[in-house]
Design a protein that fits this description.
- The complex is a heterodimer of chains A (294) and B (301).
- Chain A has 294 residues and is mostly helical.
- Helices cover 77% and strands 1% of the residues of chain A.
- Chain A is built from eleven helices and two strands, in the order H-H-E-E-H-H-H-H-H-H-H-H-H.
- In chain A, strands 1-2 form a two-stranded antiparallel ribbon.
- Chain A is globular, with a radius of gyration of 25 Å.
- Chain B is mainly alpha-helical and 301 residues long.
- In chain B, 74% of the residues lie in helices and 1% in strands.
- The longest helix of chain B has 36 residues.
- Chain B has a single domain, classed as MetI-like (MetI-like fold).
- The chains are: A mainly alpha (294), B mainly alpha (301).
- At the A-B interface, helix 1, helix 3, helix 4, helix 5 and helix 6 of A face helix 1, helix 3, helix 4, helix 5 and helix 8 of B.
Amino acid sequence: MKSSVKKSHKNLKSQLTQFTGFLFLRLAVYSVLFILLYFFYDVGSQGYKAISWEFLSQVPKRGMTEGGIFPAIVGTFLVTLITALFAVPLGMAAAIYLNEYARAGRLTRLIRLSIRNLAGVPSIVYGLFGVILFVNMLKFGTSVLSAGLTLGLLTLPWTITASEEALKSVPDSYREGALALGATKWQMIRTNVLPYSIPGMLTGAVLGLARAAGETAPIMFTGAAFYLPFLPRSLKDQFMALPYHLYIMATQHHAIDKARPLAYGTALVLIVFVVLFNLGAILVRARLRRKWRH
Amino acid sequence: MGTVKKKGILGDLKESLIQRLFQTSGLLAIIVLVGIFALLLHTSIPAFREVSLKEFLTSTRWDPTSPERPEYGLLSMLASTVMVTFGALLVAFPVGVAVAAYLSDVASPRVRELVKPVVELLAAIPSVVVGFIGITLVGPLIAKLFNLSHGLTALNGSLLLAIMALPTIISISEDSLNAVPVSYVEASLALGANRWQTLVRVKIPAALSGIIASMMLGMGRAIGETMTVLMATGNARAFPHGFLQSVRTLTANIAIELGEVPYYTTHYYALFAIGLVLFILTFFVNLTADVILEKQKRKLR
């Protein structure tokens, strides 16, 4: 009798520790969710006041205390386009090599190790590399081309990883079917692998590009301009970019009071852009996953 | 499959050319990594014609524009980087592991499907926006709490970097917890342990190496993060003495000075030498994490 009381007492205690333990874990999750939501709320509630058609469609005016961010939006779009043209095909090709051709061995291990390490290289180091290689050695100058290529290198490990994931999701039976019918390796890839993996590859690529578009450190010294009232006319021109513009408005502007509302507006545009791309990618991914399950 | 062509010498040639093309793209990863190191090294070397390596690595004074005697010591900035990173991990590691444990062991599948994208979204916020929030929201809060004239301090940088390191720590830790074989959990539950005891005494110890690797990857991110610390920590050049002071990290110093420095001067080269130090630091942190993760993968297989 006594021992059973003791036992249930012990049971109660261990149940209590479990309850408190899980409560602690829950609190951690709630605090992370709260922080994210509060960030969005803060930028959203301050930023929406600045948003207007004028803000989105005009050039900055009066020492960037009035007007809009149109050149920065276009500049970010252009630089991301160059990044995409450079990094997406290369990333896909590297992924095809790794998943379809490469045999397990030292070289393949070394390539994978390099990819994982490239993903960890600080973005400002990419910026320095861009200054040496694109701006100086290849003489592209500080331009939208140099900045786009620098961001392209930065994005490369992400696009490779995402593309490989997409290739892996194609069942091996698709490959075996093509080979059994006498197709060559490339024919197999072209007809039975790529058509099914391209949506996944592009989803991953878009996510990587959205991240690249928000980067500042790599473009600061390779082509982003403090203030340009016009749009770049060639690949060798400098450009305005949203993230760099936000940095300038938040820290380098002489009239903080006048610049702050516009900075909030710029931050909101950046966040909305990132959230939309991520939500889109999540939806596409969920759809793809459902498709492969059937 | 009506398009299958006859195979011949020409077809073989085409096949091998295509393979070579893909292979070159794969090799590009190695080339870029080695290229970054080589070009940074090459551009750093001229700095050491005028600055001794000993001064560069052990002096706390960095004053390249002094008219009398320019000084090039990175120790204050290195200490700032270490301090801000350490502070970030102090917050991010326990919270990150807790969230990972919640996702792997407590949350229902529906909650998990909801929380995971949110964590991904956190990783997607541009660092310049996080820095902006540091100026407008977190910094003023710190100033108010500690009665400071402004909140642009190491503490501000640490808190913001913690938020940025969280997604990495959460996702890698969760992967490691999920990789623990079900048999471990079943054995523990069968012996009468409850879920909390199983988590703390069986699963976390079994996944420990992966959890530590997640911390190292988070550390790598924090060391290399530029815009957030540049905007949020005040950038004072002195040697750091506490979390409530302004500090200037290695990354912030490059960002501040590279825009103003004349090309091909000792100062210019010295900034690339700081970049080289950053590259080497993050390389070894990431490599260690990588080795730990590979080992764990092999063990749990």
